[in-house]
Amino acid sequence: MRKGKQTEGGLRLMTVLLLLWSIHASAQRTSGAAPNRGAAEKDQAADEASDRHFSSSTTDSPQLIPDHLESEEPARNDSKVSVNGLHAKPQEPRDGFLLGEYIPPEYAVPINGYLIPTVAFVTAIGDSLLCIVLLKKEMRSPTDALFVAIAISDMLTGLIPAPVLIYFFATDRFWEFVPYEWCSVFFSLAIDTPRLFHTASVWLTTTLGVQRYICVCHPLKARTRCTMKKTLCWIGAVFLMSIVSVLYSYFEFYPIEVERPSAAEANKTVSTCRWVPLVANEETESVIRSVYHWYLAIAVSFIPCVILVVMNVLLIRAMRQAEKRRVELLRQNRRRESRRLRESTSTTLMLVIVVSLFLLVEIPVGIFKILESPQFANTLGHDVRNSIAITDNLFIVVNNSFIFVVYCTMSKKFRNSLKHLLTPSCRRDTTPEAVEQDV
């Protein structure tokens, strides 16, 4: 009996010891997992912080305002960035202006650093020749004056940001903080000024469509409303309205100088900037930004596109009617009137093609602007939005080069003048039909 009790006591003691050992082992596993969870939470917070981004549109060239710069709290970023083929982990916390942190390098470097500047320089050559030819006395007309204004706007939209894009995106500077003295220059030349000229180009194209509709469908009114003097006044008004429209973007943020550890070199400190909203109150600033964004989306994209679609439909219908009339004039042996009508129809067709190419780019850009608004900002990830914006900017710059191509393809008078300009020994056709002006 005593032996049985001893055995039973021994079993109880072993049970207690096993229970204590299991509790101790469980505590060790828990203490080892806690730091891992803490690290995971830290990495998740860093990923959320790195999700602050630039919203690029050019767009209009390209709008690059980092969301986290609205707050004066520094942003944290644990994500790895490539520096000269290596991977370096940036210091934290930091709130400097680092392009490589916000823009996908696989798109930004080849497109912003090489493609856009190349297309911009080629466009500048073509548009310069276009302006020189159309400003010649025998080529001047209200329609050509608007084409010249559009060509200048398109040329400056791509040409002004090109040196800055090459300087930052085609070199290793993409992976380093933007120097403080470059912060305002970068935004002014790469974003705000191209947006100004692109806005002018959009409104000038709309003006051209409306003017051509009046000339073709209401020729009597065109004699008083589509004169050269009034056309020049409209061009000046459009540029003035464009300046007023984008003026807010020049002052929306201002830079504050900060010093940060270099993102590209170890043991080095660089002077960069942190962007602070001009309006201190966060609620007020959010409302102003939302209103301004929707104003640009509606006034610069939606309304012009709707007007141009309607004008294109009306002009295509008018061209069909003009072709029937031209055939009738030929039957009546009124060849001179038929030739004039054919030249006018050719100019209208040229405009329809230019506007159609314009709409092919601007309608997707307008849709993207709506998706980029504060109300829909969370529908797309920041990498997707930035990739789409960079692609849009490329399409806008490419589209800007088409006016010269269309003129060379469709206008015999322009080709003759261009040939005479480039080869002075060539004798230009001096018949009355060759120097006849378009309406």
TrEMBL record:
One of its GO terms (cellular component) is membrane. The chain crosses the membrane at residues 114-135, 147-170, 232-251, 292-316, 348-368, 388-410. The keyword Lipid metabolism does not apply. It is found in: Membrane. Its main location: membrane. InterPro entries: 7TM_GPCR_serpentine_rcpt_Srw, GPCR1-related_rcpt, GPCR_Rhodpsn, GPCR_Rhodpsn_7TM. Residues 126-407 form the G-protein coupled receptors family 1 profile domain. Keywords: Membrane, Signal, Transmembrane, Transmembrane helix. Residues 39-54, 67-79 have a biased composition (Basic and acidic residues). Residues 1-27 form the signal peptide. PANTHER family: SEX PEPTIDE RECEPTOR. This is G-protein coupled receptors family 1 profile domain-containing protein. It comes from Batillaria attramentaria.
